[in-house]
Structure to design on (259 residues):
């Protein structure tokens, strides 16, 4: 029997209703599928039943990779590696649909990596991902709300995001101490061009470093008090970082890159 490893965030999904909800979120038949962290293969089995054209899984745990190989034989390609070390855009030549009940401790790192490293062409057509509920609340937060911040701004830059449902701890074994949320994310057709996405990380970091303070100080630090940009983007420096909407942040990065 496989013993769940806490260090790898192993909570295996056992709720049939949720497993069905995940595989019914979007079409699988004849598509290229990637599952991150398949664990003991509960979701994997549901995906196989929907007849993908090709099915890759990335699992870091060596013991689980061997177990999956035995269980599924030649129905999938098992990549026994750390998802954080893979360059997906070079790995996949055709667009993939990504599924993952992500290890909670690295879920934001995985998603930020995907968005920041995205080249002009998306390597995925959609993502069906599970997060700790508090993290999902930050990803989908709108401006002027307490959860709005760097993660919402970075994720909403290139992706449309929809919440599918919340999931209770009872749906997993072992039971986690937290609630989860399933999100559906897919590429935006139009988004504001940024030359180096690291500048989006930088600007949001500097603005949200002190989220209760007014915008004056971080703005002056980045833009040397340039009033033309303030007028152009209609920014009031007496506001706080959470009062500035997504688009204005992306436009600010654009201005920063053209200073
Ligand atoms: N998908 C399975 C399910 O729903 O039953 C398991 C989900 S469990 C929350 C997270 C899985 O991700 C585990 O199987 C764990 O070993 C794997 N994992 C953890 N860190 C990883 C990493 N850096 N790269 C790839 N897989 C990882």
């Amino acid at each position: 029997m496989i013993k769940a490893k806490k260090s790898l965030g192993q909570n295996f999904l056992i709720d049939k209703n949720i497993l069905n909800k995940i595989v019914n979120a979007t079409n699988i038949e004849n598509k290229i599928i990637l599952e991150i962290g398949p664990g003991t293969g509960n979701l994997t089995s549901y995906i196989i039943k929907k007849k993908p054209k090709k099915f890759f899984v990335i699992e870091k745990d060596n013991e689980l990779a061997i177990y999956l190989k035995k269980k599924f034989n030649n129905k999938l390609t098992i990549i026994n590696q750390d998802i954080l070390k893979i360059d997906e855009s070079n790995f996949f030549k055709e667009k993939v649909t990504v599924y993952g009940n992500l290890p909670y401790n690295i879920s934001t790192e995985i998603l930020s990596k995907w968005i920041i490293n995205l080249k002009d062409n998306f390597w995925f057509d959609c993502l069906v991902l599970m997060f700790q509920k508090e993290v999902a609340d930050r990803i989908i937060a709108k401006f002027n709300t307490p959860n709005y911040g760097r993660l919402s701004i970075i994720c909403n830059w290139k992706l449309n995001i929809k919440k599918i449902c919340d999931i209770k701890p009872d749906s997993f074994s072992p039971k986690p101490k937290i609630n989860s949320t399933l999100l559906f994310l897919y590429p935006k057709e139009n988004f504001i061009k940024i030359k180096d996405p690291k500048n989006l990380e930088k600007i949001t970091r500097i603005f949200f470093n002190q989220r209760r303070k007014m915008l004056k100080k971080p703005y002056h630090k980045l833009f040397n008090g340039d009033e033309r940009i303030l007028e152009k983007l209609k920014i009031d420096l007496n506001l706080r970082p959470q009062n500035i909407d997504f688009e204005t942040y992306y436009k600010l990065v654009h201005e920063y890159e053209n200073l």
Notes: The mean pLDDT is 95. Strands lie at 12-13, 32-36, 54-58, 77-79, 96-101, 124-132, 159-167, 172-173, 180-187. Residues 8-13, 37-39, 42-43, 58-61, 64, 82-84, 101, 103, 106 surround S-adenosylmethionine (CB under 6 Å).
